[in-house]
Amino acid sequence: MSWTDEKIERLKQHWMEGRSASQIASLLGDGLTRNAVIGKVHRLGLAGRAKSPNVGVARPRRPAPPPAAQRAAARRLAAPAPRLTRGATALAVAPEALSEAEPEAFESVVVPMSLRVTIIELKEAMCRWPLGDPASSEFRYCGSPVASGPYCAYHGGLAYQPVQERRRDRDRMRRSALR
């Protein structure tokens, strides 16, 4: 299928009228697909277009109003309801009461002195925690004494976190992101 000048003009006209790519493909015919229409629209740089009125718009039905006696009773019994927000609310700002910020737990930030050894100086009972960029001539390993495993106590705490602690930290981060 080739795009003739006539088809391109008809495509532009239908696009500006607000028709969908599927509708345009069926109107132009010749085995033209929706994806071919979308691709041509992008290549032509067609951006904004008119919205077709009442196409695919579902209007909510309003329920019949209740009798006056029921409305009056409902007003007396109903407490003030929270304000409803309709539509796309993913980025809506929800009002929250201000509260004191919880002080975060103190975490020790003491980093032990490392021996900063090269790979040649590295022995079996030394920490193998990498320090710096491996491509740099200044690259070293920690070299502190180890009790068991490849890392000293400090770097072992960084490398191996208990599952419960990771879950707790992940859940805490999720909760703070939702606030």
Describe this structure as you would to a colleague.
The protein has six helices and two strands; from the N terminus they run ααααββαα. The protein has a two-stranded antiparallel ribbon with strand order 1-2. α2 (21-28) crosses α3 (34-44). It is flat, with a radius of gyration of 33 Å. β1 and β2 form a beta hairpin. By secondary structure, the protein is mainly α.
Fraction in beta strands: under 5%
The span between the termini is 53 Å
Strand order of the largest sheet: 1-2
Taking pLDDT < 50 over at least 5 consecutive residues as the criterion, the unreliable ranges are: none
Query: How would you characterize the largest beta sheet?
Result: 2 strands, antiparallel
Question: Rough shape?
Answer: flat
Mean pLDDT: 77
The helix content is 25-40%
Oligomeric nature of the chains: single chain
The SSE string, one letter per element, is HHHHEEHH
**Secondary-structure class:** mainly alpha
> What is the helix tally?
6
